[in-house]
């Protein structure tokens, strides 16, 4: 029995090892068009900024270890096509140009995603995306060689704000341009506004509602043309370095024209990673994933989802049954001394779905108010008006805030209501929280907005 895996980062290798552990005498061939494998892409901004001092710390297993584990790892081998009726993958060696056919019994597609680039920005020195480990090397090298002092980040999502911190740590003056009216727009605007204010108060340029028009270039130290200015539809900004943090798109172009079901290039799967083609699985940033709170498949390119679906795909190939009902869009982000976290649906998402919902945003303290150095902590709850069932939560505050969302992840997973949370017995000690935990406080405010008969009493 042979498993062929396309892609050797999170989803692909998680699936390969999961299948190997559960299927006897399984031959595993992994095709990877690059040379970097099994690395933690989420750590790349911290590697660039110096918080992580060695690239090796981001690598879970190197190529030699994977080969030693019995996997036939073929680096710089790109999948250029698949014939699902013949169960064959068509590959090309990027070193020799030689084409080959690789038959399979099971196929796992874990090709990840490509960074979005704006036409006209390709080939300009000093302009980078950050999507691969090689991208992070290029950025670090450029910063060190060119002694960069000014940078512009186009895109204010997770990666954009994380790069703002990384560049700040390197002594580089950086600012963000975002075409939407808020940064971190997977959160509701009233939550992201808390972090936005913090960044503005710290002196960072945060330019909202501006769309990149074009880049201007100039000659630097007789080294040739390099980016010198970012021009938007409203203003212009000097820059020696530009980071395009505009999101990603599924790397599935080689599958166009096949009968594989896809949505905007993202492969549709079931809860165990199966596609509509027998024997073919998909996981990670090239695939959709089921959001059980929203009740729909969504494109959520997150490391947690990649590892989870890779493992589930391997178990499914082995005929193992796992209790998994989908994900709930949980995530964290840190920018300097501020943190945000979320799980479940935002107000924005609930409104798009036409749900009858309510929400509350409360400001509490992360410690008892009399304890030294207590700080503001913001909690937002989104719930259904008919029964108070919690469908989403967001938090914002200074260091130590984000992890507190973990108390609300299982609440949403278990369909708890704000009435359940109002008197839930959270632990208490003055250095950690108040006698009424922040979640209790938010839930109590939400409960007051709902009918009295909904209470569990």
From TrEMBL:
Cofactor entry: FAD
Magnesium found in the keyword field: no
Keywords: FAD, Flavoprotein, Oxidoreductase, Redox-active center
All copies of domain Pyridine nucleotide-disulphide oxidoreductase dimerisation, residue ranges: 335-435
InterPro entries assigned: FAD-bd_OxRdtase, FAD/NAD-bd_sf, FAD/NAD-binding_dom, FAD/NAD-linked_Rdtase_dimer_sf, Pyr_nucl-diS_OxRdtase_dimer
Pfam families listed in its UniProt record: Pyr_redox_2 (PF07992), Pyr_redox_dim (PF02852)
Keyword Protein biosynthesis on entry: no
Annotated family: Belongs to the class-III pyridine nucleotide-disulfide oxidoreductase family.
PANTHER family in alphabetical order: NAD(P)H SULFUR OXIDOREDUCTASE (COA-DEPENDENT), PYRIDINE NUCLEOTIDE-DISULFIDE OXIDOREDUCTASE DOMAIN-CONTAINING
Name by which UniProt lists this protein: NADPH-dependent 2,4-dienoyl-CoA reductase/sulfur reductase-like enzyme
Source organism per UniProt: Youngiibacter multivorans
């Amino acid at each position: 029995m042979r498993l062929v895996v396309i892609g050797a980062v999170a989803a692909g290798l998680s699936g390969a090892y999961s299948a190997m552990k559960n299927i006897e005498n399984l031959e595993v061939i992994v095709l990877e068009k690059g040379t970097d494998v099994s690395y933690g892409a989420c750590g790349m901004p911290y590697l660039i900024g110096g918080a992580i001092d060695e690239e090796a710390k981001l690598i879970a297993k190197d190529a030699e270890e994977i080969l030693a584990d019995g996997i036939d790892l073929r680096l710089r081998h790109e999948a250029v096509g698949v014939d699902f009726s013949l169960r064959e993958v068509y590959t090309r060696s990027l070193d020799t140009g030689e084409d080959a056919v690789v038959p399979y019994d099971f196929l796992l597609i874990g090709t990840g995603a490509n960074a979005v680039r704006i036409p006209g920005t390709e080939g300009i020195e000093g302009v980078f995306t950050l999507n691969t480990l090689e991208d992070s090397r290029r950025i670090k090298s450029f910063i060190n060689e060119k002694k960069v002092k000014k940078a512009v980040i186009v895109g204010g999502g997770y990666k954009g704000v994380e790069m703002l911190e990384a560049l700040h740590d390197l002594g580089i003056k950086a600012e963000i341009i975002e075409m939407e009216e808020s940064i971190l727009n997977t959160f509701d605007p009233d939550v992201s506004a808390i972090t936005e204010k913090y960044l503005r108060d710290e002196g960072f340029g945060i330019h909202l509602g501006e769309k990149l028009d074009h880049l201007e270039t100039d000659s630097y130290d007789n080294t040739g043309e390099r980016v010198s200015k970012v021009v938007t539809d409203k203003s212009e900004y000097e820059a020696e370095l530009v980071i395009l943090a505009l999101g990603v798109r599924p790397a599935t172009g080689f599958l166009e024209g096949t009968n594989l079901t896809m949505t905007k290039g993202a492969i549709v799967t079931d809860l165990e990673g199966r596609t509509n083609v027998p024997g073919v699985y998909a996981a990670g940033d090239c695939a959709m994933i089921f959001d059980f709170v929203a009740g729909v498949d969504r494109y959520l390119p997150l490391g947690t989802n990649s590892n989870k679906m890779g493992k589930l795909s391997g178990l499914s190939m082995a005929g193992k049954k796992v209790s998994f009902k989908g994900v709930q869009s949980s995530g964290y982000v840190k920018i300097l001394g501020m943190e945000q976290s979320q799980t479940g649906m935002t107000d924005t998402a609930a409104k798009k779905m036409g749900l009858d919902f309510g929400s509350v945003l409360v400001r509490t303290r992360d410690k008892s108010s009399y304890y030294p150095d207590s700080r503001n902590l913001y909690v937002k709850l989104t719930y259904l008006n008919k029964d108070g069932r919690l469908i989403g939560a967001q938090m914002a505050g200074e260091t130590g805030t984000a992890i507190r969302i973990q108390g609300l992840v299982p609440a949403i997973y278990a369909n708890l209501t704000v009435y359940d949370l109002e008197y839930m017995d959270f632990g208490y000690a003055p250095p950690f929280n108040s006698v009424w935990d922040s979640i209790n406080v938010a839930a109590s405010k939400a409960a007051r907005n709902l009918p009295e008969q909904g209470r569990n009493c």
